[in-house]
Amino acid sequence: MTNPPTSQGTAELESAPAPIAVLRPLLPPATDVLPFLSRIDASRIYSNYGPLCQELQQGMARWLGAKAGTEGVRVVTASSGTTAIEIALRARALPGRRFCLMPSFTFIASAHAVCNAGLEPVLTDVEADRFTLTPALAEAALAQLPEPPAAVLVVSAFGAPPDVAAWEAFEAAHGIPVVFDAAAAVTSLRQIGHQPLAVSLHATKVFGIGEGGAVITTDGALADRLVANTGFGFASGERVSTERAGNYRISEYAAAVGLATLAGIDAKEQRLLRLGGLYAEALRNSPCRLQHGAGTEWATMTLNVVIPHERLDRTLRQLDAAGIQWRRWWGLGTHHHPAFADLRRTALPVTEDLAPRVIGLPFYEGLTEAEIGRVVEALR
């Protein structure tokens, strides 16, 4: 039996600052979703590309097209960001080839999606400032493979806008299809082309619906094929399976949350950018740096700081002592997970150096300026 706390111990507990969570997702309130739920009750359509799903896809396409200044945008919803990557790879990977280049520094879902698409990941390094695979790094990796890859999976780091133009040039030069794992980047897409951009609509993303994903492209034929890939390979409304696929559709209930999210997404993005600006200002003279552009040039829900080597252990102890949660959102790299430890890979010096030092800070709507001050103080 433990002894009850002394009066001094009770006072210490009462005076200790409240812990700060690393993330607290916030989806639209039930009152915003209710009108769409009433439409489901009236239609008695609950899944299978129902009217709300269609409206969400079309609404997102208009919104994304306007943001990127692009016409002819198509959005194909999927059951998760992971399945969005998978169906995009299935549709684009060159047949008869087995490898898919991808960075080791990414969330583990990327590697699972590659394998689920029937390909073998080949892990590459990333660029140090933006945490991403570049065309130059991919070209260097090509020379180390025994045969050309079926595709390249380019990961947008924590919501950073992908360099679509550079990767279109890479694909044109090498004839290797490119797919973007842009899981957290749905609000930061500045260019949309034929190469599919797979995004996550998980609750932990800026555009969250709870669980879901989507593929974004200007290639209409590809979009039609992606729709078939979410519904057993049925194409053109016929119940004839034209290719091996799966059941990756979203329900009308998920679409209802999505439509409520879409209605308020621009305002939410601005609120998150305001929070990011507060962090950037507070860290201006800190030895710890934010990911390039994160929270100021583009919105994210996973704001990361890069801590210098010599300060890492001490800083993490200070965060713990102050009751401030932190997280390595992507761990130490795909190659450190037992399920993928035996994958073919290039040298990974930047990943090995960077991954331990990229630390996710508390970041969410409702975080106060005082709490940001506590976080920054613990980083000193």
From TrEMBL:
UniProt keyword terms in alphabetical order: Aminotransferase, Pyridoxal phosphate, Transferase
Family label: Belongs to the DegT/DnrJ/EryC1 family.
Taxonomic superkingdom: Bacteria
Transmembrane segments: none
Organism: Sediminicoccus rosea
Gene3D superfamilies: Type I PLP-dependent aspartate aminotransferase-like (Major domain)
Entry's Gene Ontology molecular function annotations: transaminase activity
Protein name: DegT/DnrJ/EryC1/StrS family aminotransferase
Record PANTHER family: PROTEIN RV3402C, TRANSAMINASE
Entry-linked InterPro entries: DegT/StrS_aminotransferase, PyrdxlP-dep_Trfase, PyrdxlP-dep_Trfase_major
